[in-house]
Amino acid sequence: MEKKTIATNNAPAAIGPYSQAIEANGMLFLSGMLPIDPATGEIVPGGITEQTNQIFANIRAVLAAADAGMGHIVKTTVFLEDMSHFGGMNEVYGAQFTGTFPARSAFAVKSLPKNALVEIEVIAVKQTV
């Protein structure tokens, strides 16, 4: 198996012992993305809409570092601080994709790092494996 670390300064640096993403045999596994502005290292101000938009900017940056894009995403997992944020997240989420939507799971969790309202992880495929 060929395994490659994907990293970019255009997305927040990992805040622990993990990688922004790993590419293995044409598949990309993006760590959970928080709504952190990579320029400031802080959670973006605002609510669920602003946070979800920032997460997708971060996802796009990491995918670009791996020569991939939103159309390569096959699965997402959404973690919400509270299910009351689902509607706002879902509205932003739906606008991110054209054509076929990826498979998705969404969960409410007790809390998220840095008190974020949402975190999203992604699996993408660059080539047939």
Kindly describe this structure.
With 129 residues, the chain is an alpha+beta fold. It has a single domain, classed as 2-Layer Sandwich (60s Ribosomal Protein L30, Chain: A). Helix content is 21%, strand content 32%. It has helices at residues 48-65, 86-94, and strands at 3-6, 21-24, 27-33, 36-37, 42-43, 73-80, 103-108, 118-125. The chain has a six-stranded mixed sheet, with helices on one face. The protein has a two-stranded antiparallel sheet with strand order 4-5. Helix 1 crosses helix 2 (86-94). The radius of gyration is 14 Å and the shape is globular. The mean pLDDT is 95.
Feature tags:
129 residues; alpha+beta; 60s Ribosomal Protein L30, Chain: A; six-stranded mixed beta sheet; two-stranded antiparallel sheet; 8 strands; globular
How are the SSEs ordered, and which strands pair?
Elements: E1 3-6, E2 21-24, E3 27-33, E4 36-37, E5 42-43, H1 48-65, E6 73-80, H2 86-94, E7 103-108, E8 118-125
